[in-house]
Structure formats: structure tokens, C-alpha cells
């Protein structure tokens, strides 16, 4: 059977896959790096090509962004809870704050209810009791995804079933025929563990939106009770809130759990009683996908060097997407990971 050929096939058109495709089309953005090439990081033949590689994105859904990238809180929080991830948080937030990729509304982050030691333990870059970061804010995530995907070769309703070696390429079988590529990228979000044979776990989290309420101001910050597990921010005249639940779940399981909503009501009554009793306009669940050490997974698969993973973005995939895409594209174009890559999939594979 004839197969469509590309240099790179990306499975998944959420933020991870889309941002990687965006940067593969812009190799010139690779220069200012937070991750300087170290010894052994030798640009391959693909990197030296002046033209961008031919990239095809394969997405099983009718539209991109129907999973984690369309079910999140859209908050751009620069501060990461992992030192290795902090440069990606800083770069991603800085780019989004400029408002060139999508609308960005500055509202600030107010972290409450933590002592000095807890702040330092959770956020290595932060000091003091509690935290106020006026720079953080809300991004228009749907517009961000559209920016990443503009002018890309995107095939929706194309479910990748399997792949196999075919000479020096991989042959990818889908619900819409076969593709061949030099590099296959696993950007499957909650499915990335299954698709790529990695120990990744999707954790379910609920969000609740209230109808417009008197007294809610649009310039309120994002308020996060990190120790107790409650956050909220203004949304369309009401509030968007989460009980910060994290329940292991099967990929694509968005069934709502009444206990999570009850937990939210209890936390609001205890921690923010002045908000009063809240009504629900709509609620939904989404999945944040994590490696066991909760660090991103970005790099080549040690078992199949033509397979590349951009996965396990947990609760930071909106904030870091630009930086994650740039880092992933840089490694793919170079054809090799830096030897000191803290995100290497090798750490997860015995
Ligand atoms: C409730 C909640 C709140 C969040 N809040 C924030 C926040 O405020 N700030 C922040 O920075 N991050 C937040 N996040 C995290 C962020 O949303 C994710 O990290 C990010 O969206 C992950 O993107 P992704 O591309 O890896 O996954 P996804 O968006 O899930 O994309 C994966 C894609 O792969 C496709 N796919 C899977 N398998 C196949 C296959 N076999 N063939 C073809 N296609 C396939 C899927 O259909 C899907 O479209 C939140 C997440 C949740 C759930």
C-alpha cells in the first residue's frame, strides 16, 4: 500500500504537538536557548538543511484541543515546582505576556496559607511567606492553539493505531491510511503513556464555573491555597474554581465525580467563607498527565531512536508550551538529546 511521506509525523494536536510543529517550521527561533548545546550535541544533517522539514500532525478527534488543552484553567503561572522546569516556565510565561501569540490578561497570582519553609520547599525560586506575583495572568488558550497550528499540515479524525520500522524510516498505520517518517513524535497527552510505552498517569481534576455574582471584580487575582488545595479566579462575571483534586484515571475518562464538587464546597466554606454559597453554571473534568517524578518527558526513546516524546506536561502545559515546543524541535532538528537532558525519557525506562 502506498504511504504518504513526511520528515516528521506528530501524533496529537494539543498544545504539546502543536507547539512542537510551530517550532519545527521556525528553526531560526532555536538560537536564544535556555538549554545551551553541550558537548556531544552535534547538529545532524536535518538541522543543517536551510528549509524547514515537512511535518504532518495526526489528530484522532474532529478538532484539535479537545482534551487537556481544551479543559484547563488557562492560567499562566511562571513559578514552577521543579528547578529543572523553571527555565521553561520563565520562557513560556515571558513570551505569552507579550500578547503576540494570543490575548493575555494580567491579573497576578496570590499564593496564600503557606509558611516560609513550605514556599521554599515547593517553589525553589521563591522566598517569603505566601507569594504575590503580579506578572501572571490568563491566556486565550484556543487562540494560542490556533496560532501554533496556522499553516500546519493537520489531519483530524486520523487515529494512529501502530507503527513499525521500514528501512531507515517508521511506517505509521492510521484510520486514514499509512504515513512514513524519519521521526515520529508522541504528543498524545493522556494517551502518551499507552502510545509510547511510558509510565505516565493521567490524573483527573475538576473545574467549576459559577454564574455572574455580585461583588466579583474582574481584576481579582488568581488565588491559590496551595497547601489546602483550592484555587479560583474571576471568569465572565463569576468565578472559575478547582478543588485541586488529582485522581488516577484512564485516558479520556471525564466522568464527573460528585465527591470532588462536595470537596470544593467544603474548602470554599472553610477557606473563603466570604464568597458565600456558590451556584454552578457548568463544571467539567480534565486530565493532567504526569511521569512518576512529575517532570516533563522530552526526548528520544532509548528503545527506538526514531521515536520522540513530548509528554507528561502535567499542570503546566499551557504556560510552558512555547518553550517546550522550542526545546523539542531543537532536539528533533539536531537529531540528538544533550547528554544532560533532565527531561530524557531514558530515566523512565529500565
Ligand atoms: C483541569 C486542568 C487545569 C489545568 N490548568 C492549567 C493552567 O491553568 N495552566 C497551565 O499551564 N496548564 C494547565 N493545565 C495543563 C495543560 O492543560 C496540559 O498540560 C496541556 O494541555 C497538555 O497538552 P498535550 O498536548 O500534552 O495534551 P492534549 O491536549 O490532551 O493533546 C493530546 C492530543 O493527542 C491526541 N491523540 C491521543 N492519542 C492519539 C492517537 N492514537 N492518534 C491520534 N491522536 C491522538 C488527542 O486526541 C489529543 O488531542 C491544566 C489541565 C487540566 C486538566
Would you write up a description of this structure?
The protein has 8 helices and 21 strands. The model is unreliable at 36-43 (pLDDT under 50). The chain has 2 domains: 1-103 and 140-199 and 292-350, FAD/NAD(P)-binding domain; 107-135 and 201-290, D-Amino Acid Oxidase, subunit A, domain 2 (D-Amino Acid Oxidase, Chain A, domain 2, 2-Layer Sandwich), CATH 3.30.9.10. The longest helix has 14 residues, at 258-271. It has helices spanning 15-24, 45-48, 86-97, 116-122, 141-149, 192-196, 258-271, 321-334; strands at 4-5, 8-11, 55-58, 75-76, 104-106, 109-112, 131-133, 137-139, 153-155, 160-166, 169-174, 177-181, 183-186, 201-209, 222-225, 230-235, 238-242, 247-248, 282-290, 297-301, 304-311. 44% of the residues are buried. Helix content is 21%, strand content 28%. The strands form 4 sheets. Strands 6, 7, 14, 15, 16, 17, 18 and 19 form an 8-stranded mixed β-sheet that branches. A 6-stranded mixed β-sheet has the order 9-3-2-13-21-20. The protein has a 4-stranded mixed β-sheet with strand order 1-12-11-10, with no helix packed on it. With 350 residues, it is α/β, with parallel strands linked by helices. The two termini are 36 Å apart. Bound molecules: flavin-adenine dinucleotide (FAD). Residues 11-17, 58-61, 66-69, 71-75, 159-160, 187-191, 195, 205, 207, 286-288, 313-319 line the site of flavin-adenine dinucleotide.
Q: What is the CA-CA span between the terminal residues?
A: 36 Å
Segments where pLDDT lies below 50 for 5+ residues? 36-43
Within CATH, the superfamily of the largest domain carries the name FAD/NAD(P)-binding domain
The beta-strand count equals: 21
Question: Roughly how much helix do the residues carry, as a percent range?
Answer: 10-25%
- CATH architecture name of the largest domain: 3-Layer(bba) Sandwich
Estimated share of beta-strand residues: 25-35%
Write the H/E string, N to C.
Answer: EEHHEEHEEHEEHEEEEEHEEEEEHEEEH
Rg over C-alpha atoms, rounded to the nearest angstrom:
20 Å
* Classification by helices and strands: alpha/beta
Molecular shape: globular
Largest sheet: 8 strands, mixed
Provide the CATH topology of the largest domain.
Answer: FAD/NAD(P)-binding domain
Bound compounds, each kind once, are: flavin-adenine dinucleotide
Q: Look at the structure and give the mean pLDDT.
A: 91
Q: Identify the CATH class of the largest domain.
A: Alpha Beta
Figure out the total of helices.
8
Number of discrete domains: 2
